[in-house]
Amino acid sequence: MGGYLTHDPAVEKWIRMRESTARHFRWNNRNVRLVSVLGLAIPAGILYLAVNYERKANWAAMGPSRKVEAASEEDA
Question: Domains of the chain: which residue ranges?
């Protein structure tokens, strides 16, 4: 049952590259596109949706709903 471990040179090279990604990183079109979409466009879109929703639902100005007021007047 006790086998031995074989070393694949391609896997070893990939492991070395993953351990030192900072040395091998280069800005290219793909990296710029990923950073702009994942780092800027998606958070800006979420911020836009949150602000737009907050403006539509002005929580401070909302009082109790009309149904609650009508029901409490009938009970009284």
Answer: 9-75
Report the distance separating Cα 36 and Cα 30, nearest Å: 10
In tens, the pLDDT along 3-35 reads 678 889 999 999 988 898 888 788 999 999 999
22 sits in the region (left: phi over 0; alpha: psi -120 to 50; else beta) called alpha
Calpha distance 44→37 (Å, rounded)? 10
Residues sharing a CB contact under 8 Å with residue 24, sequence separation 6 or more, in sequence order = 17
Secondary structure of residue 65 in the 3-state scheme: coil
Global pTM exceeds 0.85: no
